[in-house]
Write a structure and sequence with these properties.
Mean pLDDT of chain B: 92
Shape of chain B: globular
Number of helices of chain A: 0
Distance between the termini of chain A: 33 Å
Oligomer: heterodimer
Mean pLDDT of chain A: 94
Number of strands of chain A: 11
Structural class of chain A: mainly beta
Number of helices of chain B: 0
Low-confidence stretches of chain B: none
Radius of gyration of chain B: 13 Å
Order of helices and strands of chain B: EEEEEEEEEEE
Strand content of chain B: over 45%
Largest sheet of chain A: 7 strands, mixed
Distance between the termini of chain B: 36 Å
Largest interface: A-B, 29 and 28 residues
């Protein structure tokens, strides 16, 4: 398995609180991605990073921010959690070449109550 | 809206039968990839086809790509109960940064 770890694996939080999810890789891959997965929507890209301090928005970035201060860590922050952000969040990594496959973490199940 | 849409959303077949899943996408791509997801797990890469390729094989998997129709299909031959999973197509654009964008997926159930 590719060296990619998400933490926490499960979290329950209250509406309005900030939440940070962490993705850690040991593969030295250039690209890191955050997706959310909801029934009927497949995986939707939230934000991605193409290098340290280099990030870009995906299709569902509102309400989320990211940071990448070192190659191995990519943080996803929900600035003020809402019930609509209840979801399963996946981190993925890839080498960044056009032909590079993506490797996925095991996911974080987040519930906002 | 999502780049890729899969069809059908769900598919149920008997062991030994072939399973075909289709994917349509919207923008010009460099390549298209297929992934598999077992229930409650992360996605696993299956196969990649480049935009200048029309067909690719890997074991019991056959992928086709029609860039003029912006569509791809994944065929799993001689299916097994262990093939039960969700299958997703994902595209990499041919310009700009390599943001991998996924479709909505097909849930495949293979009955023993």
């Amino acid at each position: 398995d590719a060296g990619i770890t998400q933490s926490p694996r499960h979290k329950v939080t209250e509406t309005g609180t900030p939440v940070t999810l962490r993705c850690h890789q040991t593969e030295n891959h250039r690209y890191m991605y955050w997706y959310r997965q909801d029934p009927g929507h497949g995986l939707r890209l939230i934000h991605y990073s193409y290098g340290v301090k280099d990030t870009d928005k995906g299709e569902v970035s509102d309400g989320y921010s990211v940071s990448r201060s070192k190659t191995e860590d990519f943080l996803l922050t929900l600035e003020s959690a809402t019930s609509s952000q209840t979801s399963v969040y996946f981190c993925a990594i890839s080498g960044g070449g056009f032909d590079n496959e993506a490797f996925f973490g095991q996911g974080t199940r987040l519930t906002v109550v | 809206s999502q780049q890729g849409e899969e069809d059908p959303q769900a598919l149920s077949i008997q062991e030994g039968e072939n399973a075909t899943m289709n994917c349509s996408y919207k923008t010009s791509i460099n390549n298209l990839q297929w992934y598999r997801q077992n229930s409650g797990r992360g996605l696993v890469h299956l196969i990649l086809i480049r935009s200048n390729e029309r067909e690719k094989h890997s074991g019991r998997l056959r992928v086709t790509l029609d860039t003029s129709k912006k569509s791809s299909s994944l065929l799993i031959t001689a299916s097994r109960a262990a093939d039960t999973a969700s299958y997703f197509c994902a595209t990499v654009p041919d310009t700009g940064r390599r943001a991998l964008t996924f479709g909505s997926g097909t849930r495949l159930q293979v009955q023993p």
